[in-house]
Specification:
The complex is a heterodimer of chains A (223) and B (230). Chain A is of the alpha/beta class. Chain A contains four helices and 13 strands. In chain A, the strands form two sheets. In chain A, strands 4-3-2-1-5-8-10-11-12-13 form a ten-stranded mixed β-sheet. A three-stranded mixed β-sheet of chain A has the order 7-6-9, with no helix packed on it. Chain A is globular. The termini of chain A are close together. Chain B is of the alpha/beta class and 230 residues long. Chain B has one domain: Glutaconate Coenzyme A-transferase. Helices cover 19% and strands 26% of the residues of chain B. A seven-stranded parallel β-sheet of chain B has the order 4-3-2-1-8-11-13. In chain B, strands 5-7-6 form a three-stranded antiparallel β-sheet. Chain B has a three-stranded mixed β-sheet with strand order 10-9-12, with no helix packed on it. Chain B is globular. Chain B starts with 15 loop residues before the first helix and ends in a 6-residue tail after the last strand. The mean pLDDT of chain B is 94. The interface between A and B is large, with 40 and 48 residues.
Chain lengths: 223, 230
């Protein structure tokens, strides 16, 4: 399965967790794909850190508006009822608790739900963007990440060795194989793809976790 | 609304080269934009033609894109210190930093925007949850408020702000277009001298008072945007 189809499996599963009326911020990279998986009746309001509330679908080729981009600097559209604001107002509402759900990517996320997604150890710090603000400000944080790195190492680890994005734990971790919820400072396996067993998850996850399986997701092959 | 009041206009409209003379050697300069959207490209072009604009400290979210926008000013060796939130996408920043030609200060984006807003609002700084418990907290004053850790951030002021708006009126009132607003209204308030690059200047009264985002008192000079050179 290609990287892109893995990303779409994850994005689809994240989209299923969003409720109508919620204000949702999608981080750059894979989280941006969540927008493509929102159903027509699933009216969420997408906020973009560069000052948009009401982001719409990707424009058709040739219909891009050069002055209308999302946080990943890709062309977007806006829906009826959208509004623009300044950067300080945008981050004011982010830190101020007005975002219901932030979907963030991860380099590592650990058994306590702590997230590392902005820097590598020993490397110069060259960018953080809005990740730290979203982590402290959003009411719920969903991490959308591949289960393993490209080298096949677990991205869900006992304790992050990469620099943390903040001291607040995320709420949900969605990979192409599983969903973990963070409860009482630990991970709980709540969803499993139907072509994966718990043994695989245990051997490919660096953190310990409890099981409370409530649903079986479609297999990767059907994606 | 048919009455036209004889308001005396101030001649803020000047050529880009003249406006940019406010940027001196060692100036602290804010440049609006998120990526290249909302970036004053005509003013940046003028900056590249200035003899004085060197050893600059820039305050901008990104340093443009590689070789584009503010990225050109970087490659021209005019920036000695870049303050912003996300330089990861510009390899020229990494290269110049490694060669010791550039100091880099990375600030979380919301903290950057608020520090600029604070400077414009006469505040010395503020406490934010953002960055608490991270590498970014090292060497910063920390304070517990209501049981949560907060970091102190000083206001960020500049000598000159180069901003991009859509339309100005003769007084310098500004309106913005789409997502090109971003940092521009904040930066307009936070510098000793604000220069606004716009697509069009209209007579006073043509902009509705309700649509004006930046009132004219923040705007010192207006420059007309030139079509981008390919």
């Amino acid at each position: 399965m290609s990287d892109r189809s893995v990303a779409h499996v994850i994005a689809g599963r994240v989209a299923a967790r969003l409720a109508a009326g919620e204000i949702v911020n999608l981080g750059i990279g894979m989280p941006t794909l969540v927008a493509d998986h929102l159903g027509p009746d699933q009216q969420v309001f997408l906020q973009s850190e560069n000052g948009i509330l009401g982001v719409g679908p990707t424009p058709a080729p040739g219909a891009e508006e050069p002055l209308l981009i999302n946080a990943g600097k890709q062309p977007v559209t806006v829906r009826p009822g959208a509004s623009f604001c300044s950067s300080s107002q945008s981050f004011g509402l982010i830190r101020g608790g007005r975002i219901d759900v932030a979907v963030l990517g991860a380099l590592q996320v650990d058994g306590r739900g702590l997230l590392a997604n902005w820097a590598l150890p020993g490397r110069p710090v060259l960018g953080v963007g809005g990740a730290m603000d979203l982590l402290v400000g959003a009411r719920r944080v969903i991490v959308a990440t591949e289960h393993l790195t490209k080298k096949g190492e677990a991205k869900i680890v006992e304790e992050c060795t990469f620099p943390l994005t903040g001291d607040r734990a995320v709420d949900v971790i969605v990979t192409e194989r599983v969903t973990f919820e963070v409860r009482n400072g630990g991970l709980v396996l709540t969803e499993l793809a139907n072509d994966v067993d718990v043994g695989w998850v245990r051997s490919h996850t660096g953190a310990r976790f409890d099981e409370d399986l409530v649903s079986v997701a479609a297999s990767l092959g059907s994606a | 609304m048919s009455a036209v009041h004889p308001i005396r206009t101030v001649a803020k409209l000047v050529p880009a080269q003249e406006a940019i003379s406010a940027v001196r050697r060692g100036s602290r300069v804010m440049i609006g934009g998120f990526g290249l959207v909302g970036t004053p490209l005509t003013l940046i072009e003028a900056l590249l033609g200035s003899d004085e604009a060197r050893e600059l400290t820039t305050i901008s979210n990104n340093v443009g894109e590689p070789g584009r926008g503010l990225g050109r000013v970087l490659l021209d060796g005019r920036i000695s210190h870049a303050i912003g939130s996300f330089f990861t996408s510009n390899p020229d920043v990494i290269d110049r930093r490694e060669r010791g030609l550039l100091d880099v200060t990375v600030v979380p984006q919301g903290t950057l925007a608020e520090a600029i807003r604070a400077a414009g609002a006469g505040l010395g700084g503020f406490y934010t949850r953002t960055g608490a418990g991270t590498l970014f907290a090292q060497g910063r004053e920390e304070r517990i408020i209501d049981g949560q850790r907060y970091l102190f951030q000083e206001a960020i002021h500049a000598d000159v702000a180069l901003i991009r708006a859509h339309r100005a009126d003769d007084l310098g009132n500004l309106v913005y277009r789409l997502s090109a607003r971003n940092f521009n209204p904040d930066m307009a308030t936070a510098a000793t001298m604000t220069i606004a690059e716009v697509d069009e200047v209209v007579p006073v009264g043509e902009l509705s008072p309700e649509e004006i985002v930046t009132p004219h008192l923040f705007v010192n000079r207006i420059v007309l945007a030139e079509p981008p050179r390919v």
